[in-house]
Amino acid sequence: MEQLFERKNQLVRLTSLNFVRDIMNDINWNAQLICIRGARGVGKTTLMLQYIKKNYPAMSRQVLFVSLDTLYFTTNSLLDLARDFYNNGGKHLFIDEVHKYPTWSKEVKEIYDLYPDMRVVISGSLLLNILGGDADLSRRCVPYDMQGFSFREYLAFYHKILLPKCNLHSLLSAPEDICAAVLDRCHPLPLFKDYLKFGYFPFYSKNKENYYTLVEQVLSYVVEMELPQIFNVEVAMTRKIKALLAVISASKPYEVDASKLSSVIGVHRTTVVNYLYMLQKASIINMLFQEAKSIKKLQKPDKIYLENTNLLYAIAPESVEIGTLRETFCVNQLSYAHQVEYRKQKGDFLVDGKFTIEVGGQAKGFEQIAGVDNSYIFADDIEMPYGRKLPLWLAGFTY
Q: Quick one: how far is CA 284 from the chain centroid?
């Protein structure tokens, strides 16, 4: 176990506290078992190491961070590690990449039951199923999902412009105050354009030249490794899934014709819909429905977007269409904390069953949402609101 403590101490020492995401304060770290899920690269590991650095003395042996994809766990069990750690005074065990360990759910359940006064934090893929596996952890585990940077977090991380997040009601009812606070610190429009291309993942500053290569690696890892491992997708079919993503990324906001998609990529219609649900769960796409309350298992979605705008530029940079870009951003930012539905008429989206949102450029008029209560335009290329026409970038301040 000494090698694990040495590795933990080194990782914590190298972890920066210059920027800590707000989700740090949203998590109940005192819960006995926490699960942090998120797409590869969004910062789950950094978040856990930052918590350790902020809350435990350097070299503390009451806390341990381990990653289950290390060689140590090819010859040692997680359960044995937890027992030894606990018997030697361990209080807080952080387990990263939990989905890489075949019997993780069974052993985590046993750790939970055997050591009720030890806190455990696990992290892994968004595809992590705390309801299934060898043990049902749903009644024991408190789950939290992470996604990439909001526009607000991008400003803080890359440009040191610190601004508070705001709830949707405040954003819609008093946008002038928020916009004025932003304009006191920067001109948001050029930074917003950069965010749409490079701002969603926290590794742009490390390797700007190869940013899209890293984004493609994240995508490939999910499709080629996680889908076969977690959903038993045949490896030979991963090329079909990538072809499906290429079709979606090269289209305008995609109104779903499952039969057409089936014909284009050469798989059965039911299989296409099944793949779409996997990609949604993996945070690669966002699927919208006209009536979210009536969604049934494997029901065909009404509209599909890539999950974030950086994926558009990574997969099909020559095909990025401005309308697709704007709507993809809006859905991505608002769906983190709100229910977003597709509106076929009278607006683009219905948020939380109450607010109608139309997305467009600065010249966008109110014709399509005339007479609709609680309706707003999110318009690109403006810095200040004009009545119910709000800057599009403002949607990036909701988390």
A: 9
pLDDT of residue 316: 87
Number of domains in the chain: 2
The answer to whether residues 210 and 138 belong to one domain is no
Q: Which domain holds residue 67?
A: 2-146
Final residue of a domain: which of 146, 176, 195?
A: 146
Q: Which among 275, 212, 274, 198 is positioned nearest to 243, based on CA atoms? A: 275
Say whether both 203 and 303 belong to one domain.
yes
Q: Kindly state whether residues 127 and 159 are assigned to the same domain.
A: no
Tokens, residue 359: 């997305």
What is the average pLDDT score of the chain?
92
Contact 361, 341 (CB under 8 A): no
Q: Do residues 139 and 160 share a domain?
A: no
What would the two tokens of residue 176 be? 């002038």
Name the nearest CA neighbour of 328 among 385, 392, 372: 392
pLDDT in tens, 68-127: 999 999 999 999 999 999 999 999 999 999 988 989 999 999 999 999 999 999 999 888
Q: CA nearest 364: which of 381, 355, 377? A: 377
Asked whether the predicted pLDDT for residue 140 surpasses 60, the reply is yes
CA–CA gap between residue 342 and residue 356 (Å, rounded):
10
pLDDT for the residue 295: 57
Q: Please, which residues have CB within 8 angstroms of residue 190's CB and are 6 or more apart in sequence?
A: none
**Looking at residue 225, what DSSP letter applies?**
I
Q: Of 96, 111, 146, which closes a domain?
A: 146
